[in-house]
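User: Fold this, then the next.

Assistant: Folding the first:
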Amino acid sequence: MPVTAVGRRGFARLAIGAVLATMTGCARGGGSPDTPGHLAGPWDQFVAGSKRQVDHSPLALLLERYVLKRSDGVHLFAYGDVTEADRADLDRYILSMASFAVDSLDRREQYAFWLNLYNALVLRLVLSRYLILSIKDIRFGLGPLGEGPFERELVKVLGRPVSLSDIRERILWPIFKDPRLHYGLCDAAIGSPNLQPRVFTGERVDRMLDGAALDFVNHPRGARRDEGGLVLSELYRRHTAAFGGGFAEVLAHLRLYADGALLPALRGARSARYAFDWSLNDGTGLGNLR
């Protein structure tokens, strides 16, 4: 009997549920995850069953005001419409996150914490260099040896310098081992998974990641077939290890979320081309899309 989309979502939820359950089985847990390249820090600690939450309302208001939904399902952000007051609120939000005792949270709230912080940092970075055509155009330092936007340390969390790559590859992945995290992180690009119009919270992080996975996998920028064969997002090649380690495993992951139109394209595929549109997801002046 074929697995329905609802069934696949349930299966994926079981995966993260099992991970989180193992992390919340004692009064207090922690220790560096046994993963090469893990960035150790206070975030390795957590408090099982903690009721403490983070105030993400400044980011929530920003997303509500400036995330736009294009008719083709791609989410844009109206960078050029952001007011100085809202930019100041974003700065204050990031500052509050940087000093927050993340080790006092349970694992679900920590998951939401890092997803939101990553997306907030991307927004602030683009706003600081606005009128760029792509986040990839941002360089720190002179010449081709200058640091790119993902390896640059953009914030100190509890005194520890952290980059976007640190959050994705050296904190979130070692702790949660959940491939869906990549669907929750937006890199300010048309080809990226969508910037969600609301913040992640511990209560809804699982449902939101499932929804983001379904949306991206079944959108042409995630996976599609054209006259040349199967085309997958470059996301799956950049992070192959997170999606299982090989092409067959990537396809198995995609089948968990693929709907009836995409499934035939995945069956029997032996290879794929990869594509990613790094154009800025800019919706400035398009407020009518709300």
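Now the next one, as you asked:
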Amino acid sequence: MTTHIIGAGMAGLAAACTLAEAGERVILHESAKAAGGRCRSYFDPHLNCRIDNGNHLLLSGNTAAMAFLKRIGTQDTLAGPKTPDFPFADIQTGKRWTLRINPGRLPWWIFAPSRRVPHTRAADYLALLKLRTAKPNDLVHDLLGHTGALYKNLLEPLAIAALNTMPDIASAAPLKTVIAETIERGGAHSIPRFPAIGLSESFVDPALAYLASKGAEIRLGSRVTAIEPGQKTILAVPPWIAQEILPGLAAPDEFEAIANLHFVHRLAPGEAGFWGLIGGTAEWAFAKGDILSVTISAANRVAEIPNEELAAKVWSDLAAAFGLPAAIPAYRVVREKRATFAATPAQLVKRPKTRTANPLVMLAGDWTDTGLPATIEGAIRSGNAAALAILGKDLV
């Protein structure tokens, strides 16, 4: 029996690959002309080069993402440092420093001033233990906001990037899961990774080739508005689309934006190829060949700032951090207005499970109840879970 997968973002691609590997017949539908959703690359005629629609930093502890890349044969296409090092640049002071987590599970790095966040003490890191018992109603700032330099220079930007929601309203529960699966397991699970060339080259195009090799049918530009009775289906679409197809479905309905700015400027990649930015508008900067790309998470706060003004503001930060010329180079601003659901306590309870009232219809997407924030890792896990449910092998 054929399984129809509606949506070819990361959740849909993961579901399709899992089913195809199991020998199932798959038809993958995507309303857009290209697969990948928010995780893709494209040619920008203004910049005259390929860019990613957004920046996605993975960690070696993202087990589902790494397994997905291994399945499609692209695990060697990721770049990043070979060790769990995270360089930071302080916009206000001009200082640079690097967080260096030791490989083993015992976190002795917090006792080494040269490895930890500047102006912090080893005792400050005990605050992270509060995350272990965090409940959905516990807010990030309420739990961790008292830790001074540790919060300002690490925990706050980490939370904003991971949750795509400002810490004063964001639930600490999804952040707890992220920390537990990476930093708490040691540096070997915390090595930063990102596509060496582009998102499509690592995640999307090879997945489509893998599916084609398994006999899957891929229908791009194919919009599905209803599910045929008796049809095995995985809905891997945004929540508002899923609610159109399945009226009455409870799902998150408040969203946060992400803004990415791509500047035509070649910057030496340094030791890692990226930097965390402290005290500026954006949280992360990536040196990608001729492009210097930055990400503003929880970007509802900059929604009303015109592109020209936002680009000038961000470039001023980059110039201060890296000693760049004041003149703004050619750039592209890419805004995703509903990039992720808002990771607030009120929205977490609206995340649906994989199974629906129809035993033949499953849900997939980073907005479903994965326990993780809306990330590539969460999307892939949701797709795997939906595929296993279709196969009658639900994850425990």
